[in-house]
Every structure is written in structure tokens, then in C-alpha cells.
Amino acid sequence: MQRLASLFFIGSSIFLMSFTAPTVVKEGNKPTKTEIAKPSVFQVNVTESKVNWTGRKVTGHHEGTINISDGKLELDNNVLKSGNFSIDTRSILVTDLKDAGSNAKLLGHLKSEDFFSVEKFPAANFVTTNITNKGNGSYDITGNLTIKGITNPISFPATVTIEGSKLTAKAAIKVDRTKYNIKYGSKSFFEGIGDKAIYDDFDLDVVLVATVK
Fold this sequence. Notes:
By secondary structure, the protein is mainly β. 15% of the residues lie in helices and 51% in strands.
């Protein structure tokens, strides 16, 4: 009977120790906390960013500038994932014509219904839909470009460089204006206009300068 009591006491002690004894975790088995990097959002600086445009015709070409009004670029681990920017069409300027009268005449025409109808459509917008990373800061960009309220898909190459908290994105975009109901002087729609023809494509050289929000 005494032996049975002793066995009962030892068993009870072991049972209690299984609940009260501290759990020893080996140093090498400690769980580690995984830090999940958040995407970086860069806000476009509209003062430092710029767009140069070039329009060509049979007899020559014209050049100018237009202002960026807003934009954001999102990166994950320094790789571009998405982006958008807006252009203030009312800010368009002609830079190649030095004669004030000729400059004002062309500028007024560009702002009119024949071209960008800037009072009715004061903004043009671009939003990415697909980005292919080619490495070393080079990308193939596809997205939706909206001009005069008309949206079409467009693709172009771009480069992105990052220095500290500053990002610079550059892109050369070729736009077919006739897809946005800008048909003035187009041989595609008006026959027999000869050397008065204006080519359908115009170029936008875009430089976006942005900093982390």
C-alpha cells in the first residue's frame, strides 16, 4: 500500500510538471519576423517635370512644350509596377516660331477645335495597364492615353533611374492624333491637300521627376 502511494505521488508530480515546467527554446530555433517591404509611391513634381512635343508636316515641323499637372509612380523593390500622369492642355506653347504673330496664330489653332480643344478638354491623361521590366531601368510600357475625352491603348519604351529619394522617368511617345478625332490636315482623311498635309503622328518626349510621398 505504501509503494502504491509512492507511485501515485511520483506520477502526479510528473503530470503537474508537464504543465508548470518552463519550455526551453533553443537559440537556433527562435522564430524570425519577416519584414514585408511596402511599395514605394513617388509623387510627380510638376515644376521639374516637362513634356516637349514635335509635330511634323510635309514642309517642316513645329516644336513646343506642355506642362504636367499631376502624376504618381509606384515601385516595388525599385521596380516600376504602375504609374499615371496628367497633362494640362491649356499650357501648350510653341517654341520654334520666334515671330510673335506667327507664334500666336499657330498656338491659337492648336488650342482650337481643329486640334486639342483645350477649353472643353483641359486635361489629357495616361494610365499604365501593363509594364514589362527589361532590366537595368528599362521598361516597355502599355497603357491608356486619353485626349479630347477619347481613350486608346498605346505602348512605348521608358527608362527609370533612382538616386536616393528622387526618381526620373523618361519616355518617347508617338501618338496617332487621328485616333483622338484630330484630323485637320491629315492625308488619311483629306485628299489632294499636297504640301499642306500634316502627318498623323506627333511626338511627346516626357520627363517625369518624382520623390517618395
